[in-house]
């Protein structure tokens, strides 16, 4: 295999890795959104009662986003541990980056956390707009 073919193969591998990484991130964000949207749908009465009793929007927002943060934190902790355990397996495809590079790992965790916060904001904003009268009547 010539050097040009090897470079093309590496580029294809990196392109596929990037594509599947993006797809995994999208699936994680959609999954978190779905879980929280379902939770908000199930707790419509509870949230309606809280609003009727005078809960302010920031309290409802904190409740829903906090629930998403707990799910995200748990997932990030498990994923971080698994990533550290499986890091030697991907050592052969990393170039000029250490397997345990703290900057790369930190950026990945921060990026996933930001995506999770945005995914949990959508159901939280929907929960703020719940009409207490309709929620208690249904």
Structure notes:
The protein contains five helices and no strands. It is elongated and about 70 Å long. With 138 residues, it is an all-alpha fold. The protein has one domain (25-137).
Annotation keywords:
138 residues; 5 helices; 0% strand
What portion of residues is helical?
over 70%
What Rg do the Cα atoms give?
Answer: 21 Å
Number of helices: 5
Instruction: Point out poorly predicted stretches.
Output: none
Q: What do the pLDDT scores average to?
A: 86
Terminal Cα span = 68 Å
The number of E-state strands comes to 0
Biggest sheet features? none
Strand content: under 5%
Shape, per Cα inertia axes: elongated
Global structural class: mainly alpha
What is the N-to-C order of secondary-structure elements (H for helix, E for strand)? HHHHH
Provide a concise account of the structure shown.
The chain is built from five helices and no strands. It has 138 residues and is mainly alpha-helical.
Write the layout of secondary structure elements.
Blueprint: H1 3-42, H2 44-52, H3 57-86, H4 102-128, H5 132-137
Helix pairs in contact: 1-4, 3-4
């Amino acid at each position: 295999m010539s050097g040009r073919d090897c470079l093309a193969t590496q580029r294809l591998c990196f392109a596929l890795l990037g594509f599947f990484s993006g797809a995994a991130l999208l699936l994680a964000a959609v999954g978190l959104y779905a879980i929280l949207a379902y939770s908000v749908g199930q707790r419509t009465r509870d949230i309606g009662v809280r609003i009727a009793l005078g809960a302010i929007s920031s309290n409802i927002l904190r409740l829903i986003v906090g629930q998403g943060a707990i799910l995200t934190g748990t997932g990030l902790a498990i994923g971080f541990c698994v990533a550290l355990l499986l890091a030697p397996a991907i050592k052969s495809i990393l170039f000029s980056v250490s397997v345990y590079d703290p900057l790369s790992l930190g950026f990945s965790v921060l990026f996933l956390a930001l995506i999770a916060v945005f995914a949990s904001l959508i159901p939280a904003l929907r929960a703020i707009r719940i009409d207490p009268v309709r929620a208690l009547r249904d």
